[in-house]
Amino acid sequence: MVIANTNPPIITSEVTKTHFTPNEYREMEETAEERHEYRNGEIIIIPGVSEVHSRITVNITTFLKLSLRDTNF
């Protein structure tokens, strides 16, 4: 379910709710298949993490750990 996104809205005859309470957000997250973020009453979909993204993250972390070894950082 996409509540808010960056694509232009599709005009339909139905009214779409755009402001939610924290409790409404929690209820929707219990059954949602994708992850969302609640920000100022809006619910925004969070993109999933790919295997490539995870690999990049591990490589950067390893590089920083090795580069900062024996320093005060």
Describe the model.
- It is a single chain.
- With 73 residues, the chain is α+β, with helices and mostly antiparallel strands.
- 37% of the residues lie in helices and 11% in strands.
- The protein is built from two helices and two strands, in the order αββα.
- It has helices at 22-31, 51-67; strands spanning 36-39, 42-45.
- It has a two-stranded antiparallel ribbon with strand order 1-2.
- Strand 1 (36-39) and strand 2 form a beta hairpin.
- It is elongated, with a radius of gyration of 19 Å.
Helix fraction by DSSP (H/I, runs of at least 4): 25-40%
Q: Report on the biggest sheet.
A: 2 strands, antiparallel
Structural class: alpha+beta
Mean pLDDT over the full residue set: 80
Number of helices: 2
Strand content: 5-15%
Secondary-structure element series:
HEEH
First-to-last CA distance: 43 Å
Q: Calculate Rg over CA atoms.
A: 19 Å
Silhouette: elongated
- What is the β-strand count? 2
Query: Uncertain segments of ≥5 residues (pLDDT<50)?
Result: 5-14
Q: Which strands sit side by side, in order, in the main sheet? A: 1-2
